[in-house]
Predict the 3D structure of the following.
Amino acid sequence: MNERTVATAALSGVAAVAGSYAITGLTPAFVAAPVSAFVVESAPAPVVAWSIGTLGDLGHRLAFLFALALTAVLFALGALVSLWAAGRVDLPFADALLSAVVAALVALGLTGVPVPAAVAGIAAGLVIALATDGEARADEPVSAGRRRVVQAAAGLFTLGLLGAHLGWRREPTASVTEPLAGLGTGTAEKADDGVGALFEEARAKSLDIEGIPGLVSTFEEFYEVDINSINPTVDAADWTLTVTGAVDSDLVLDYDDLTSRTPEHRFNTLRCVGESLNGKKLDNAVWTGVPLMDLIDEAGLELEECCVMLRAADGYHVGFPLAALRNAFLAYGMNGEVLPRGHGYPVRALIPGHWGETNAKWLTEIEVLREPMDGYWEKRGWHGTGPVNTVAKLHAVNRLGDGRIQVGGHAYAGTRGVERVEVSVDGGGTWTDATLSEPLAGDDVWRQWEHTYEPAGKHDVVVRATDGEGNLQPRERHEAFPSGATGWVRRTVRP
Ligand SMILES: Nc1nc2c(c(=O)[nH]1)N[C@H]1C(S)=C(S)[C@@H](COP(=O)(O)O)O[C@H]1N2
Ligand SMILES: [Mo]
């Protein structure tokens, strides 16, 4: 085995990944999907906590890049074995053919989806064919062999560009949406239905601060947190939700059963327990769906105490006290559109007042438990199933034309509500009440705050909220792991 063989095998490995991506995009049929899930699953809990705390979303992206590389290496190893075995038979294109078959089998083994696996195989074989010209030529000059490896690299580059283009077009992103049936046509902006009325309310109550979202986050603004880099693709036609466990009789619902019920529309704010104190994983939307407790009542509770476990199509699961379900919601619409894939299509849970992680996306099962059980994040040391911490964010620092400065952001305290936001422009020495947006209707909604003042030199702005029960946001600083960041947001401002 020489350098050229290794280079050829490596190129073939990358080609298999590119070929697969071309036909699957970032869906579970992509060869890197199971590898990525494996990487995420086997990452030790302290590494995960460190990565979320220190690298944030970058950690997630690096893990995915690592998974992509690992997948390519896997295919390259397959190609090496093929090249070695093909060297034993004297047939034209034996190496390309064998490599194609081996790559297709590896892809099939990884994903179980035949057509994309075949495409991965063809791509892998094609690159080998370019690199070998159909024959093993052990006696050729080194320069000629190099030329063919370069030729294969060029071929792979073209193939890669094509693959990236094709795969990208298949990308089912969170912001690709379609209107929700029964609400007219993309009626988010119209006030003649339940969603439109809520949009109107949010618009009227918004303080319109430049540089931060209004009271309803758009699809582009709304944060997304997933355990996997590749989200599940659930078909609403095949989807069912099972209510099971300590209930009188199991209940199984399909998408039509759920969406034919009288819909409700409500605001609900979500915040991720893993975000930094002044992070941006806090958003609000208008959701359409039905109260979750109705389904539990239909199944009949066998017990009044203890817990529940929500399970989802991506293997995600989250357990918490039954009491948290009291005002919970099953959403199939978001901002007047069909719930986007990135936010849990076809159906997700919304659990008012609790951290983001309780709001299971791609929900498939609600199990009533007799004893508490840890969910995905709790097994990794997080305490993200309880009520949210109170926070006032500082995201807007606007220099107004007249020399004054406007600072502003959102404040959130879950179902306790935000009663007051105070701002200090002297580093915490003196405090002034900020202007607050009128509270939106709903149990679990954020507010906007704003304060405009005459600056005197460089200064520190500090902001703190008080919740609806009169509790001041704790001053003591703590990082997000394990139960949410605490402290007061502070920012140095130069006029
Ligand atoms: N099935 C499933 N549900 C999930 C998650 C997930 O990875 N899988 N992430 C959770 C976390 S940690 C948060 S903060 C919220 C984020 O919801 P969003 O992506 O719609 O903003 O979804 C929660 N629900
Ligand atoms: Mo989260």
Q: What stands out?
A: The first helix runs from residue 3 to 24.
